[in-house]
Amino acid sequence: MPEDRIYLGLGSNLGQRENFLKSALDKIKASDKIRVLRVSPVYETEPVGFTGQEKFLNIVVEITSELTPEELMANLEEIESKVGKKAEFKNGPREIDIDILLYGKQIHESEKLKIPHPGLPRREFALRPLLDLDPYIFDPATNIPYSAYLKRIKGEKQVGIKREIDLGFRNNNEVS
Fold first, then answer.
1. Is residue 18 a contact partner of residue 57, using CB atoms and an 8 Å limit?
2. 105-156, pLDDT tens digit by residue?
3. Do residues 30 and 15 touch, judged by C-beta distance below 8 A?
4. Residue ranges per domain, the chain?
5. What is the CATH number of domain 6-162?
6. Is the Cβ–Cβ distance between 79 and 23 less than 8 Å?
7. H or E segment at 153?
8. How far apart are CA 47 and CA 159, in angstroms?
9. pTM
10. Measuring CA to CA, how many Å separate 30 from each of 59, 75, 139, 150?
């Protein structure tokens, strides 16, 4: 049985943003319960919610894992802590933020975790890198292609691509 493709959104807008992204990606890659398949280009984006803060660097990482959604989220929160996350309030500045955007075609809702991520259809900073990895991916809850969501919101927030950042990961086009 093939493993679910899981998509993680990573963002940083404090200090050495590139270093926080690279450190988080390195820790995700080092986990024996997670296999990193591909990493999107890096996008520099305007903040959402609390706008009185620096721009974010955002990526989407495609992984597989034997962990359940809840176990994976606990693992990612531990990685955030190790990388140095000290977010003081919701949507505020942070060294690193890691969200589970999609877990295959699963719809998961618990007190702590909702998958697909409820903000994904409204967030160009997550949709663009997600669609770089899979331009045909769709919302498992609505069967609407994520490309249709992007067309609805494109340009609402300034999102610029920054491909020159080396996060130390080379995508393998022959992903099995």
1. yes
2. 999 999 999 999 999 999 999 999 999 999 999 999 999 999 999 999 877 6
3. no
4. 6-162
5. 3.30.70.560
6. no
7. helix 146-153
8. 10
9. 0.90
10. 18, 12, 29, 32
